Amino acid sequence: MRGLVFWAALTAVVVLSLLPPQHLPEAAFRLWDKAQHAVGFALLTVLGLWAHPRRVRTVLAGLLLLGAGIEIAQGATGWRHADAWDLLANAVGVWAGAWLVFSVRRSWKTG
């Protein structure tokens, strides 16, 4: 079940990242673009590490590569563009999600 939740979220992020802007929900534009990237990748990281707790390096590396792949794909769509700042925001999200997961795990072990 955990894996299904992770893969469903990952699929949603990829689809939303590649849709033409006019097909996105209006609510998607209420949050700063870079924050959307960071929050989305933080969520994917938390879900990925929850679904695959013994594959930390694989999850983190895979999500960093996914962030780069999405930016490359956006540049090829014709209705989106690749942005190095978005790639950085994706990486910040992966870092933030990992920090959250590791902090919670540490507090559970010591608490």
Q: Notable features of this structure?
A:
mainly alpha, 77% helix, elongated, transmembrane, transmembrane helix, 111 residues, membrane, VanZ like protein
Write a structural description.
This protein has about 110 residues and is an all-alpha fold. It has one domain (about 1-15, about 35-110). The chain contains four helices and no strands. The protein has helices at about 1-20, 35-50, 55-75, 85-110. It is elongated and about 50 Å long. Keywords: Membrane, Transmembrane, Transmembrane helix. It comes from Tepidicella xavieri. This is VanZ like protein.
Structural class: mainly alpha
- Order of helix and strand elements from N to C terminus: HHHH
Q: What is the count of structural domains?
A: 1
Helix percentage: over 70%
Q: Averaged pLDDT, please?
A: 92
* Form type: elongated
**Strand segment tally:** 0
Rounded to the nearest angstrom, the distance between the terminal CA atoms is 27 Å
The radius of gyration computed from the alpha-carbon positions, rounded to a whole number of angstroms, is 15 Å
Helical segment tally?
A: 4
Mind describing the biggest β-sheet? none
Percent of residues in beta strands: under 5%
Low-confidence stretches: none
